Amino acid sequence: MNDALNITNLTAGYLGRPVIFDLCFTVPQGVICGVIGPNGSGKSTLLKSIMGLIHPMQGTIQVLGHSIDQVRSKIAYVPQRESVDWNFPVSVYDVALMGRYAPDNIFKRLKNSDKEATLKALEKVHLLEYKDKPIGQLSGGQQQRVFIARALAREAELYIMDEPFAGVDSVTESAILKLLKEMKQEKKTVVIVHHDLQTAFDYFDYFVMINRKLIFSGQKKEALQPQYLFETYGGGLPALDRIRTAGNAREEIAKS
Amino acid sequence: MDIEIFFTAIFLSVAASISGIYMVLSQKSMYGDALSHSLLPGIVLVFLITGERSFFGSLIGALFTGVLVSVLIRRLEGIKGIYSDAAIGGVFVVFFALGILLISGPAEGVDLDQDCVLFGEIAFVPIDRWTIGDYDVGARGVWISLFLVLLALTFHLVMGRVMKFVSFNSEFARSRGVNPEIWNMIYHIFISIFIVLSFELVGVILILSFLVTPIAASWLVSGNMKRLIFLSLTLAAASTSTGLVAADALDVSISGTIAFMQGVTFFVFLSYYSLAKKRSIRRLH
Amino acid sequence: MFQEPNFLWVFAGSALLAISASRVGVFVFLQNKSLSGDVISHSLLPGMVIGYLLSGEKNFWLLFMGGFITGYFAQILTEKIIKISFLKADVAMAVVLTMFYGLGVVLLTVAEKLPYGNQAGLSAFLLGKAAALTNLDVGMYAVLTALILAFVKWSEKALITVSFDSTYAKAIGLPVGRINTLLTSLLTGAVVMGVQAVGVVLISALIILPALGSRLISASIRQMTSYAMAISLLMSAGGTVISYIYPKMPTGPIIVVVGGMLLIVLYLFRKKTNEKYE
């Protein structure tokens, strides 16, 4: 079976400035994978490169063994909640239905199966009774669940989510976690960008740790090494120490 | 070319470059478009009430409508789901239509028409003389535009500091006890005065061009405020003069040629900016 | 009044215009581009004058094509400025609008000097002459309106998806660039067609006001679309009736002022739920 993600030598960024350097890793199918790193570590850049939203400067990305454009129908993408205007006049159902859209049906009438899949997805995130509500009337957690319903409606093999746990209530959190378990049983792959280290080890079973470079990728039991966490999150501190030591040394020399 | 036309155009372009800067920097350029189209009904209403068109009458009418338009736009954008550009557009078209209705019906005698509001006619500047007693002191347009230069300079010297503060960081200003809404309102009133005094000379479209285009072009290449102002003044004067010369040579609309020249200047600067950016990206690799 | 053929033509013409403008206007509103209509309407002036210079007469389709080309080009330039520099939409729009309009005015003075120049006609043409709509105009409006409505219907799902979440639209492989091109073309088409009836400035009103008014009272795009249609029909009906009763009043501005009054009413009866989320 192909890997869900196979990334080699990926360098990507904006306006000619690379944000992530030379990443190489694979994510096998059937895992719940957390992409972990501090703010500014390039998590979103990585996700955008995988989705083909920005072109990599170097390297190759294979998704389910193919280039992204060949497998878009098998991938569901959940962008950050803040990336859209929630006052937009659409209903919960309208947004979830977008999960069924693809280049080959967007200009055609939708089938009944599309409607059924959408309703089923809404039921899974406990939003069926809200289906005709305008999205602007939802709470933050409910909004996040609408986005997840849109992804579920796609009935995809690989789910890519950008910070789905950010700022959600505990009901939504446990709903998402339950869904993740179900997806694992169904052998689906989920790749989730997440910045909160404390919860990461409860949520995920496979890890990609980055801080502009790859620090670690692999199973949970190997990821639990302090040195990886230190490199991912504490990388700035030793560097500061070194600068301070160098400064002190220069002062010493000046004195003597 | 008539020297009085030349001075009127140059003075106006310089005054507008000083005045429009906060509008451009705080990303509200289309407010200028909105205000310039909306002032018409105010001017006409004052004419209907007083029976004549006077300097102060027009001023008061314009001030009133300027404030009203700003308040209405703010009101509309405050509603969730209503975007600011729709609010701006929605308000100004209604005011403009109201103005056109008034001048084609009840206020026929006001001596304004839609052509004149949009195009203006700077070629008529030398005809409208300003006389004190029997002595002809020059074309009224020259004096009005000179007055606008002084007004703009005064505004800049007195309010420049606080306007800079408000337009760059309104949240921070608020936390320091400066209410950005009041200052923006004062600024809008100032722009309204500017427009009402100048629109008959060159038309509202050229005024908008004066208020925005040279500043936008200079912004592309200047790092600080002083340089920005200096460069935009230079650009405004340069493209106005070339526009005047070209219009004279080709015998076509002066306002139109200047507006077009300003745009061309902008695109020259934009190409320079884009080339410089590409080069710096290439250097990074 | 309703037996009067002229009245009926004027009403039919402005109603067709209002319907297509409001249908496109809803999506323009939702993409936060309401003032694009204003940019396009000012920028089609040079194209229309060139069309006029080429034909030497007011040939509807030549003027339409001329206006369409420069109007569309202006919109592309605006987007280009925003894309390659740090300048925002407001500056880009002001710069492009004044530049194109300036060029248009220059060409207009050229046209006026030509021997065959029927300038009064052209000037009225650019400032709007709804009261002079003929059955011929109305026929062309009907064709164009049918086209615009059909295209919007066909691409509605795509337009909604792109307007709501263009990142997602790209992620599922929709041709976002082409969808936006389609919307710009539809907007340009509606504007070029409307300019002849209500003039350069007031055509923006037919784009903006119905969408703005309907947004105040609706919670879904479906509602917005039908309310916007209703508002635009009320505007054109009110405008044509009033200007029929008071012939001195030009139809275009009255249509817009009626729209303004409707806006006040809708503002007062707006859905308060819209404001109190969360």
TrEMBL record, chain A:
PROSITE patterns: ABC_TRANSPORTER_1, ABC_TRANSPORTER_2. SMART domains: AAA. The keyword ATP-binding applies. PANTHER family: IRON TRANSPORT SYSTEM ATP-BINDING PROTEIN HI_0361-RELATED, METAL TRANSPORT SYSTEM ATP-BINDING PROTEIN TM_0124-RELATED. Keywords: ATP-binding, Nucleotide-binding, Transport. Signal peptide: none annotated. Pfam families: ABC_tran (PF00005). The lineage of its organism: Bacteria, Pseudomonadati, Bacteroidota, Flavobacteriia, Flavobacteriales. One of its GO terms (molecular function) is ATP hydrolysis activity. This is Manganese/zinc/iron transport system ATP-binding protein. InterPro entries: AAA+_ATPase, ABC_transporter-like_ATP-bd, ABC_transporter-like_CS, Metal_Ion_Import_ABC, P-loop_NTPase. The keyword Transit peptide does not apply. Belongs to the ABC transporter superfamily. Residues 5-237 form the ABC transporter domain. Transmembrane segments: none annotated. It comes from Schleiferia thermophila. It comes from the Bacteria. SUPFAM superfamilies: P-loop containing nucleoside triphosphate hydrolases.
TrEMBL record, chain B:
It is a multi-pass membrane protein. The chain crosses the membrane at residues 6-25, 32-49, 55-73, 85-103, 142-162, 182-199, 205-221, 228-247, 253-275. Keywords: Cell membrane, Membrane, Transmembrane, Transmembrane helix, Transport. It is found in: Cell membrane. GO terms for cellular component: ATP-binding cassette (ABC) transporter complex. The keyword DNA repair does not apply. GO terms for biological process: response to zinc ion; transmembrane transport. Pfam families: ABC-3. Belongs to the ABC-3 integral membrane protein family. This is Manganese/zinc/iron transport system permease protein. It comes from Schleiferia thermophila.
TrEMBL record, chain C:
InterPro entries: ABC_BtuC-like, ABC_TroCD. The keyword Transport applies. One of its GO terms (cellular component) is ATP-binding cassette (ABC) transporter complex. It is a multi-pass membrane protein. It is found in: Cell membrane. The chain crosses the membrane at residues 6-30, 60-77, 89-110, 130-152, 189-212, 224-246, 252-269. Keywords: Cell membrane, Membrane, Transmembrane, Transmembrane helix, Transport. Belongs to the ABC-3 integral membrane protein family. This is Manganese/zinc/iron transport system permease protein. It comes from Schleiferia thermophila.
